[in-house]
Amino acid sequence: MTLKPGLAASTIALMLAAPLAAQEADNAVIEGEGETAEAIIVTGKGLDPALSTGIYATTILERETIIAAPSGRIEDVLRNVAGFQQFRRSDSRSANPSAQGVTLRALGGNATSRALVLLDGVPIADPFFGYIPLSAIAPETLGTIRVTRGGGAGPFGAGALAGTIELESAVPGSTGGFLASAAINDRAETEASGMVTARLGRGFATASGRWDRGQGFFTTPADQRVPATARAAFDSWSTALRAVAPLTDSVELQARVGAFRDTRTLRFVGADSFSEGQEASIRLVGRGAWKFDALAYVQARDFGNVVISATRFTPTLDQRRTPSTGIGGKFELRPPLAEGHDIRIGMDYRRADGELQEEAINAVTGRITQRRRAGGVTSNLGLFLEDDWQIGPLIINGGLRADRTGISDGFFKAVDASGVPVSNLIAPDRSDWTVNWRAGALFYATRRLELRAAAYTGIRLPTLNELYRPFVVFPVTTQANADLVNERLQGFEIGFDWQPVNALVVSVTAFDNEVKDAIANVTITPTLRRRANLPAIEARGIEASVAAKLGTISLDGSLAWTDAEVAAPGTALDGNRPAQTPKFAGTLTLGWRPAEGWQVAATLRHVAAQFEDDLESDVLPAVTTLDAFIAAPLWGKLSLIARAENLTDEAIVTRNQGGSIDLGVPRTFWFGLRYGF
């Protein structure tokens, strides 16, 4: 289910019908055995959303939706949001991890994320590649997801070119003391997860873990398989420990550590990849008269990948390791300086460094022909000031952000098998200041109708991957480009949120966004592409969502129609639709809760045709899928779960390069048990 905040309390009652979601409260309570547990004064959350949240196109996914995804994967949850898009249609079991970029509003073009993704306030994109480690995000550990479309100007706003996706951990009041689930599908693949919450003085601690494994399905169509064709096998685990404790009556400390590892096989025997990471963060949240949010984090990531020849089916490249480190933090202050004003002042910092380590291999002899190293450092220091001013039924928002971006220590080196240099690029260091802004207004026209309008700008730094790492998706080689400059966004939107009756909420937004110097994989020859800054990608369209509830029946829908094109006068790309961006995508979910503990839902999803490449030579056909979810109570907190992915067994084409095709998930049935949800 989706919710547009800011409407009357009846809207909230409509959307939070599930007991689990309704139990969530600012003052979390941990369940006791045989007695009422003492109330905890901490929340485990950040500061409350600003008044201006409702000005920008925002969707909130509540816990009952998050834990009911037919695939059990976070990307399946996010596909309920109008305008959300992954670079490819593959899920996080069958895609190359480095292709898991996410964006909004058809502002894609390559696999790097153009949307800022935060987990409890911490950016989680890979420091080297910019992809999102989707398999490391366990939906059952989340309480809410807030998706805001449009350029961001607040904390870490330099990464929010297309918008911001805020993942917030579940609090004890919404999960109970113990959660567990286990499921198996018709291919004998398994998933298991658990979460334990315990009291920590007047605070709490939560330990969680998840393990998914399976033989996978054939991504290669039957008529293109060879003896070396392999299933998309996967084996991934993640674990985290989070603790929250009060320091004073108004200040709480939040700390989190986590780790994950994910291994996959793609298309051919031996085409194995891995991604792994460790991370830690600490956060102080003050809710007194002078509210503040102080955060620091560190991330260590690694990635490896073996490329197999599609003709000889032997290794041609061993990308052994890509270690990278991300560090950063922010400080946000909300001083009570003027009545009717919600002022936010702060700064944030991010730094990413990493190094590619790979060997090119002769497919015939199996000998190493080149050893390559590439890497560098990117950094961003941001200063921001934002104010929400409420004047009766009108809220006005204005924000400024100044960013000092830097790219340094960039290099690409290659030597042959005997150590003789083949290539030696040393990129010059560079830095710059950029000022961005956003402004908007929200008008409560009636008790049931809100009108809003906004305009904004934004930037995104190129990643180390885009700057320095070439890669191969046979038969196409894509070159890096050390001269890439920052992408710059400018856009505006208008919309309304309407609740004609208590049981119905409608939200519509029209937008016009333009990304100048958009980074894309530009075709040079049929087998060669190069990363380059396009003059612009222009995207204009309409996003809409509807939520209705009639007794035990609910209906939730979203759609996004986008007219996106490349503006590159004088080139073959001018007027083309950006690669991997559909013109239309829509989702409709029909839910039924016949009795306490029961949940039945079916989701119909359609994605229009899209092009594999920038020259529009290869098409990914339109696809319509049907998914289902059933939860049936057995005894106490124990429930039986049945899920179905792609019930009609549609052929979901996820890659098409000259007729060489990859497919997405086929019809899949899951059965399992869960306790405490």
Question: Helix and strand layout, with pairings?
Answer:
Layout: E1 2-3, H1 9-15, H2 19-22, E2 58-62, H3 63-66, H4 74-78, E3 84-86, E4 102-104, E5 115-119, E6 122-123, E7 142-149, E8 163-169, H5 172-175, E9 178-185, E10 190-200, E11 203-214, E12 234-246, E13 251-265, E14 272-286, E15 291-308, E16 315-321, E17 324-334, E18 341-361, E19 368-391, E20 394-416, E21 421-426, E22 430-446, E23 449-460, H6 464-468, E24 471-473, E25 476-479, E26 487-501, E27 504-525, E28 528-550, E29 553-567, E30 584-592, E31 599-607, E32 610-611, E33 619-620, E34 623-635, E35 638-645, E36 653-657, E37 660-663, E38 668-675
Parallel strand pairs: 5-8, 25-28
Antiparallel strand pairs: 1-2, 2-7, 3-4, 5-6, 7-8, 9-10, 9-38, 10-11, 11-12, 12-13, 13-14, 14-15, 15-16, 15-17, 16-18, 17-18, 18-19, 19-20, 20-21, 20-22, 22-23, 23-26, 24-25, 26-27, 27-28, 28-29, 29-30, 30-31, 31-34, 32-33, 34-35, 35-38, 36-37
How would you describe the overall organization of this protein?
By secondary structure, the chain is mainly beta. The chain has a single domain (2-675), classed as TonB-dependent receptor, beta-barrel domain (Maltoporin, Chain A). It is 4% helix and 58% strand. It contains 6 helices and 38 strands. The strands form 5 sheets. The protein has a 26-stranded mixed beta sheet that branches. The two termini are 17 Å apart.
